[in-house]
Amino acid sequence: MDYKFDFSDNKGRTRKKIIFVIIFFIFVIMFVAFFFRNSSNKIVSSISSIISKPVELVYSMFSGISKSSSGVLTDVDAIKEENDRLKKENEELKLQVLEAQKITDENTTLKEMLNIQKEYQHFNLVMGNIIYREHDNWTQTFTIDVGAKDGVKLNQAVVHENGLVGHISNVKENTAVVTTILDSSSSVSVNISTINEPAVVNGDLELKSKNRLKLTYIPLDTEIAISDMLYTSGIGVMYPSSIPVGKVIEIVNSKNDVNRYALVEPSVDIKKISEVAVIIN
Fold this sequence. Notes:
alpha+beta, Thrombin, subunit H, 2 domains, 2 helices, 25% strand, rod-shaped
């Protein structure tokens, strides 16, 4: 049997052993030098300091990296904590703003109701809030949060501090529907303030979206003018007299014209109000 000794393997193992021994002795020398760097013998101390310097540099480098990593982690935690704190403060501020807005709205509502009561103090009133508005092309109505249990009945007048709003057209136990003067079915007998002449204010299908009314049945020989105020005449049982209805803003056709009419701006901006009063006596 042929056998050939491989000297290259033996040389490789020998080389590894030598390298290992050298590294071992280097670590031993550095350890001894690091241990004796503070020796009272100046020569030994100097030599030990020189030899241990690389160890100190490596230690300082890793120590700095460790501190830097620790500092970064600490900063991340601090930022997260600050972020959580700011989020909490933001939520609290939002709640405070909502609470303040609620108080402001309540104060505004109270003020409007007091103004209505003051304006119509000679009437028996029931105050109501608008809770639903009808949104279609044909009617102009809304629902209020008072009804039969509060003394509300059909055909009672509904007012705002600035004037006439409409009348009660449907009643339930706790709610009622108001048909406003803008509705095309609405008709109000009025007096023209400057000349105390009668006429009729009607809702108009084409004008209601513009918040306008139509003044008709104007006497042929009556002189009317822009800004003339219109008040309820008191004719009929629905509307008491002297409640502001609106003012003339445009006159169409001339005097003595049978088809003469005028455009009227309501005293109340009905689309913007939220509180009304029902005259129940």
